[in-house]
Amino acid sequence: MKISFLFLLFVCLFFNANAQLTTAKLFADHMVLQRNQDVPIWGWSAKKAKVTVSLNGQLVTVKADEQGNWKAILKPMTAGGPYVMKISSGSEQLVYSDVMLGEVWICSGQSNMEFQLKNAYGYKAEQKNAAQQQIRQFHVPDKISLEPEKDVSGGQWTKADTNTVGDFTAVGYFFAKKLAQTLHVTVGLIHSSWGGTQVESWISKDAMLTSPELGAVAKTLPTTWDGVTQRIDRQLKEYAYRKQPVVNYTPEQLAAQPASYFTTWQNGQVPGAWEWMGKLYSYRGLGYMQKTIKLDSSYSKYKSVIRLGQTDADMTIYIDGKLIEKGPLPANFQLELPAGTWKGGDNSLLINLTSQQKNPSYFGTGLNGLPNEFYVQFADTSVNLADGKWHTMPDLSKPYHFDFLPNNTAFTLYNAMINPLIPYAIAGVIWYQGETNADRAFQYKTSFPLMITDWRGRWKQQFPFLFVQVSSFGGFQNSNYGSAWAELREAQNVALQLPNTGVAVTTDIGDPFNIHPKDKADVGFRLASKALTSVYHLPGFYETPLYSSANFTGNSAIVSFIHAETGLMAKDVYGYIKGFEVAGADHKFYYAQAVITDDNKVKVWSSQVAQPVAVRYAWTDAPIDANLLSKQGMPVSSFRSDNWRGVTEDKKFE
Q1: How far apart are alpha carbons 508 and 627 in whole angstroms?
Q2: For 544, which of 36, 117, 505, 564 could close a Cys bridge (C-beta 3.0–4.6 Å)?
Q3: Closest CA to 122 of 182, 183, 165
Q4: Which residues pair with 552 in a beta bridge?
Q5: What is the pLDDT of residue 18?
Q6: Which residues pair with 41 in a beta bridge?
Q7: Which residues share a beta bridge with 337?
Q8: CB neighbours (10 Å) of residue 409?
Q9: DSSP classification of residue 65
Q10: Hey, how many other C-beta atoms are within 10 angstroms of the C-beta on 88?
Q11: 551: helix, coil or strand?
């Protein structure tokens, strides 16, 4: 026994003495380090080992702690390179070449930041000249974690060139291009984003626990993956059955039900994968989709054809209780329906999905295809089936499981994709996120500034934080219907109350029918314009005009703005301003006329409102028609002068 103990002790001592010298993965060939700041370099070694770091004439020696953690601080250096960094401890040595000193910016958020240059407008031209740009990117791999991680799971620094630039974040690339050309330094992008993610996933647990708004729910969140599974299973059942008891249906039972029966089911979108529909987010199973189709009684006499896009799942299709088709169906199938299939009034189209989409397999459960591929065709008319008025219900009588994804709980992206980056020296952060939080826009007024403050506190630096206001997407409803996206834009702008923040407005270059607009050049350049103005203090760059105040006199409102000192203009050949609404004390809004009265004021009125008390601009999901800009072409941000109750105030993270 004594010999075995001594042998184990010897093995432990041997491996400890020969512990590999490593650094955080951010430190590698082609890295960009921040100029004009202290530069922390850190990693791991044998415990209490001496570690020496040398770069650009500096030599710093530090001692690792009991756990082998070490950190060296290099003094500020001006832009330059390429340099060689050497790190040594005993007989071990690491050598990193082609190291540049320049500007380092973190690029984070969801899919519009993740959006790659190869999918953006202008890619071919950028690809051709990429090698001439002083831009490098470190792409942080996607990962979630319930506990803060010490290091990222992978990644490397990549220089922009013809073969690599297509994989760069498009917004980050165009932002960096403008900075590099203007400042004449290398710009390094640390790209850490994940599509479809909520802001709560990017906040640390400690920060959420201190929040009066979010602290209570943060205390209830699971600390194990088994706990996460239980959480999302409970949420799925509460969502699907609206907090009523779970009922396992048979297809025949549901097919026999009238169309009105399905109004209690949750709405779903066609085309669309269930992954993007409410609490079906990480559900991996099968289920039902139903749509009510209202027809005139004359259509019962006619033949028709139904098409369900490119869906190639196994399915059973019923119309008003009658079995239409069952089994595997090829993509782009069309079913010919005899006369008498439909009736006058409400018809119920029920689809029992008995497999997921086969090609592409990643699509999962749902109906796949383009909007114009979903219809019922009669001889003289076509009924569109592509909309958000379908109903969904998971089939929990069949086997199912959950994929772990960022929005299952909070903190997970901060833990795995932000915490490991601290305390890398940075110039600032650019952020493009919010679409996933639109339904909780009111609470975003709290959660977004909390995240910014959290990150700054952990870096111990009030670095610049520049963000993209969500673009135009969805409907064109007026203020009487409310707009979650307009409320989200307002919530984003609340963060401007924090010091050293800035916004890039993009509603004029969005796409109402595509949540991922391809014009990323203007987005990046607008962020860069804000950075060059406020961070680097250079003349000749401009900011987006922001609402300042509204003065109501008689039958009109006079609206003032900041960042509009050189004047405003309407982007219209006839000079008409679009996008304004006014309301009286009855809170009923009407579209309004507007004229520019002097350099930074706009007079707004409507003949239908004798005494306005509120004015709004671009207050809709997709205000693509709103056309008020500064004379430098920067769009005016959407705003409202009132603080009346919105459509998202009761929606909370839970």
Answers
A1: 7
A2: 505
A3: 165
A4: 557
A5: 55
A6: 72
A7: 304
A8: 22
A9: -
A10: 16
A11: strand
Q: Enter the tokens of residue 635.
A: 């769009």
Q: Tell me, what amino acid is at 161?
A: D
Which among 199, 173, 25 is positioned nearest to 105, based on CA atoms? 173
Structure tokens given for 236: 């799925």
**β-pair type (556-562, 601-605):** antiparallel
pTM for this prediction: 0.93
User: Which of helix, strand or coil describes residue 112?
Assistant: helix
Quick one: which of 31, 28, 24, 26 has its CA closest to 45? 24
Sheet holding 22-23, edge to edge: 22-23, 39-44, 69-74
Alpha-carbon distance values, 171 to 52, 167, 193, 526, 542 (Å): 37, 12, 12, 10, 18
Residue 382 CB-half CA count within 13 A = 10
Tokens of 510: 């969005």
| Six token digits for residue 518 | 């391809």
Query: Which residue, among 558, 591, 586, has the nearest Cα to 479 in the 3D structure?
Result: 591
pLDDT at 19: 58
Please, are residues 436 and 196 in contact by the beta-carbon 8 Å criterion? yes
Say if residue 271 is preceded by a cis peptide, omega within 30 of 0.
yes
- Count Cβ neighbours within 10 Å for each residue of 360-380 and write b for 16 or more, e otherwise: eeebbbbbbbeeebbbbbbee
Quick one: which of 477, 614, 496, 615 has its CA closest to 545? 496
C-alpha 560/C-alpha 312 separation (Å) is 55
Structure tokens at 351: 């689809």
In Å, how far are 34, 83, 172, 185, 187 from 79, measured between CA atoms? 8, 11, 20, 7, 10
C-alpha span between 623 and 466 (Å, rounded): 22
Tokens describing residue 9: 């002790």
Q: Judge whether 315 and 358 are in contact, CB under 8 Å.
A: no
Angle among Cα 15, 17, 22 to the nearest 5 degrees reads 85
For residue 27, CA distances in Å to 139, 178, 501 come to 13, 25, 28
**Which residues of the chain fall short of a pLDDT of 70?**
1-19, 599
Q: Which of 259, 277, 281 is nearest to 268 (CA)?
A: 277
H or E element, residue 621 = none
In the block, which residue shows the tokens 């001006």?
78
Helices (H) and strands (E) in the chain, counts: 12, 38
Where are the alpha helices (H) located in 480-583, listed in sequence order? 484-494, 521-530
Tokens representing 119? 């999918």
Of 313, 374, 385, 315, nearest to 347 by C-alpha is 385
Q: What is the rounded distance in angstroms from the CA atom of residue 351 to the CA atom of residue 25?
A: 49
Chain CA centroid to CA 436, Å: 6
- The tally of CA atoms less than 13 A away on the side-chain side of residue 80 is 9
Segment (H or E) for 559 = strand 556-562
Instruction: Name the E strands within 161-230.
Output: 187-193
The CA distance from 504 to 35, in Å, is: 25
Amino acid making up residue 91: S
Q: Which two tokens stand for residue 495?
A: 């963060």
Q: What is the spatial distance between Cα 206 and Cα 589, in angstroms, rounded to a whole number?
A: 43
Closest CA to 197 of 275, 99, 260, 303: 275
* Contacts with 503 (C-beta within 8 Å, 6 or more apart), sequence order: 466, 467, 468, 469, 492, 493, 496, 530, 544, 546, 637
Q: How far is CA 582 from CA 66, 482, 562, 633, 640, in A?
A: 66, 14, 21, 25, 10
| pLDDT tens, residue by residue, 87-105 | 999 999 999 999 999 999 9
